[in-house]
Amino acid sequence: MPLSVGELLGAHLVTRGGEGAAVVAWSRRPWVSATFEGEVLQFEMQVDAAQRAAFVEGLSDAEFPLRRHFVAEIAAETGEGGGLVVEALIIREG
């Protein structure tokens, strides 16, 4: 069975985070506008402190290949316990 869009983006984020990076939890909620449909994905992540700046820098400009979807917005901030919280708006193409 193919991976969901959330699982695919999570895998891309772990790769971006480098050795020791992990998605601890993730969630999604539907999102709609007058012309688009999609979802907001939120990932709780652990990223090594030495890799954190590189992970966050350029995140909003990074390309993440997703089947029939694209990342419209993505941002990261420090969450509770020192982990990172990454939130992404995913738009369905077509």
Describe the structure.
- The chain is α+β, with helices and mostly antiparallel strands and 94 residues long.
- The protein has a single domain, classed as Threonyl-tRNA Synthetase, Chain A, domain 2, CATH 3.30.980.
- Helices cover 22% and strands 43% of the residues.
- The chain is built from 2 helices and 4 strands, in the order αββαββ.
- Strands 1-2-4-3 form a 4-stranded antiparallel sheet, with helices on one face.
- Strand 1 and strand 2 form a beta hairpin.
The shape is globular
Q: Largest sheet, order of strands side by side?
A: 1-2-4-3
Oligomeric form: single chain
Helical content band: 10-25%
Mean pLDDT: 94
| Number of domain units | 1
Question: Poorly predicted ranges (pLDDT <50, ≥5 residues)?
Answer: none
What's the gyration radius in Å? Answer: 13 Å
Distance between the termini: 22 Å
Main sheet summary: 4 strands, antiparallel
Counted beta strands? 4
Helix and strand run:
HEEHEE
CATH architecture: 2-Layer Sandwich
Class derived from helix and strand content: alpha+beta
CATH topology: Threonyl-tRNA Synthetase, Chain A, domain 2
- The number of helices is 2
What's this model, at a glance?
The chain is of the alpha+beta class. The protein has helices at 5-17, 49-56, and strands at residues 22-32, 37-46, 69-78, 84-92. Helices cover 22% and strands 43% of the residues.
Q: What's the arrangement of secondary structure elements?
A:
Elements: H1 5-17, E1 22-32, E2 37-46, H2 49-56, E3 69-78, E4 84-92
Antiparallel strand pairs: 1-2, 2-4, 3-4
